[in-house]
């Protein structure tokens, strides 16, 4: 029996939230592992999109708008002709409890974190099913979708929704070879984490709540995504993989 491959040679991947943090690390690792990658993010500048080239190309789009999601997928199809792997990593965080948060803020978090994922899956799944009988979708949730902390009400709700969406999606096309799994990172050393949590808070978390005594890295999350995208995870479907150093909660 042949050994399973953990490479992505010959595969095409779409990665959202690819301008920074986890999404950027996933894009870079996939490209170095043999895949052709289209990174999609509203934060990309038009010039860097125009200058990008295979194996890692960039496309600027607002993923909360269905027509822009479709434009990105049309671009990918014209460039690469197929799609094997989708990583939904786009997301924002907004602090506050239910009383403090405005309706607009709650809607923005849900649109960016959940609606965009729904739209990307809606328009990519038909292409993945057409392209391969071993497709993989990886949705990025958060440990806060499993064990929320105070004042993360909108973010935790959105990340919990992603877990439920993943489990539902995993049942729909499994017999056609499409697996849908979820990664739930804990405290990962990204600009997003530092934007919403003080250095003192993060030091407390590292020293008192993470048995490994440090924050995770985007590359460690990307490595889990690589595993789920590869043939080595061919019997994993509907899983939620936490990446948190054994975070206490």
Overall pLDDT level = 96
CATH architecture: 3-Layer(aba) Sandwich
Helical run tally? 8
Largest beta sheet, briefly? 7 strands, parallel
Cα Rg:
17 Å
CATH topology: Rossmann fold
Helix share, percent: 40-55%
CATH superfamily, called what?
A: NAD(P)-binding Rossmann-like Domain
Terminal Cα span: 41 Å
CATH first level: which class?
A: Alpha Beta
In the sheet with the most strands, the strands line up as 3-2-1-4-5-6-7
Secondary-structure content class: alpha/beta
Principal-axis shape: globular
The total number of structural domains is 1
Element-level helix/strand string: EHEHEHEHEHEHHHE
**Which strand-content bin applies to the residues?**
5-15%
In terms of per-residue confidence, which ranges show pLDDT below 50 for 5 or more consecutive residues?
none
How many distinct beta strands? Answer: 7
Summarize the structure.
By secondary structure, the chain is of the alpha/beta class. It has helices at 21-32, 46-51, 66-80, 103-131, 153-172, 191-196, 199-208, 218-229, and strands spanning 12-16, 36-40, 56-59, 85-88, 136-140, 179-185, 240-243. The radius of gyration is 17 Å and the shape is globular.
Description:
This protein is an alpha/beta fold and 249 residues long. It has one domain: NAD(P)-binding Rossmann-like Domain (Rossmann fold, 3-Layer(aba) Sandwich), CATH 3.40.50. It is built from 8 helices and 7 strands. The protein has a 7-stranded parallel beta sheet, sandwiched between helices. Strand 5 (136-140), helix 5 and strand 6 (179-185) form a beta-alpha-beta unit. It is globular, with a radius of gyration of 17 Å. The relative contact order is 0.16. The mean pLDDT is 96.
């Amino acid at each position: 029996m042949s050994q399973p491959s953990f490479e992505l040679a010959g595969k095409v991947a779409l990665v959202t939230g690819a301008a920074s943090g986890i999404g950027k690390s996933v894009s870079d690792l996939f490209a170095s592992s043999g895949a052709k990658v289209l990174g999609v993010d509203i934060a990309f500048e038009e010039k860097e999109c125009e200058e990008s080239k295979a194996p890692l190309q960039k496309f600027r789009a607002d993923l909360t708008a269905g027509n822009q999601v479709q434009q990105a997928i049309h671009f990918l199809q014209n460039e690469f002709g197929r799609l094997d792997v989708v990583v939904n990593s786009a997301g924002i965080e907004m602090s506050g409890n239910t009383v403090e948060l405005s309706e607009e803020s709650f809607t923005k978090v849900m649109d960016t974190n959940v609606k965009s994922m729904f739209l990307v899956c809606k328009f990519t799944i038909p292409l993945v099913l057409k392209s391969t009988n071993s497709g993989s979708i990886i949705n990025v949730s958060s440990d806060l979708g499993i064990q929320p902390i105070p004042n993360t009400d909108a973010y935790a709700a959105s990340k919990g929704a992603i877990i439920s969406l993943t489990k539902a999606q995993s049942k729909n096309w499994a017999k056609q070879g499409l697996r849908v799994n979820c990664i739930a990172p804990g405290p990962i050393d990204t600009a997003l984490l530092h934007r919403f949590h003080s250095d003192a808070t993060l030091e407390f978390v590292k020293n008192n709540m993470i048995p490994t005594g440090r924050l995770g890295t985007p590359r460690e999350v990307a490595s889990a995504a690589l595993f789920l995208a590869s043939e080595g995870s061919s019997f994993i479907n509907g899983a939620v993989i936490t990446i948190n150093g054994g975070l206490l909660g």
